[in-house]
Amino acid sequence: TRACRFCAVKTARQPPPLDSEEPESVAESVVSLGLKYVVFTSVDRDDLPDGGATHFAKTIQAIKKRNSEIIVEALVPDFKGDTKAVSIVVDSGVDVYAHNIETVRGLQKRVRDPRAGYEQSLKTLLEAKKHARARKLITKSSIMLGLGEELSELEEAFQDLRDYGVDVLTLGQYLRPSLMHLPVERYLTPEEFTRLGERAKSYGFLYVASGPMVRSSYRAGEFFIKNILLKESQNAF
Predict the structure, then answer these.
(1) pTM for this structure?
(2) Using CA atoms in the order 210, 213, 215, 220, what is the torsion angle rounded to 10 degrees?
(3) Taking the alpha carbons of 122, 137, 49, 24 in that order, is the dihedral positive or negative?
């Protein structure tokens, strides 16, 4: 239901209704493929009362019911800042709650749909962490580079993400989907990504993945997060 200027997904005011069988179908696929770590996401569904939170929760619960040891990462929308929707996803037993701020504060209006917002995204990430309480929940976000951001703006974003309790960060190169979308202002070199990754790590993230082709579900982070969760479970006994 949104039209961010970096995304090629088609927009519709009234998308098709949800597939009630999807949660079970996804869970069956995950188990049949023998996956140990699964990442899934969705389009924005502002047309739904809870933004699709219950659908996320049903999918996570269906996976956990079949195999509780499968680690589930959900890359979710901002749910228009609805804290109840955030809590629905957290209460489902998700292991990694991911939501992308996409870009620095100063470029939000140019890059994202007007219904999205820097503070709104940060607050949903903090709400997820707060609602989890004693349960270990890893929060994760991602920033696209090459949209015209300055180093000082990135450093502000790194600090803001840490201030809002975000554990894991990925940094990747923005690639223009079509001529109708935002142009790439600059292609960063692999060396620049390495330096930015090191700079981000200095802010205290548990893990940072930074590279031209890194995306929010970049697999390098999965192994690290898996180890974090394993250590947490061992410490619990």
Answers:
(1) 0.91
(2) -60
(3) positive
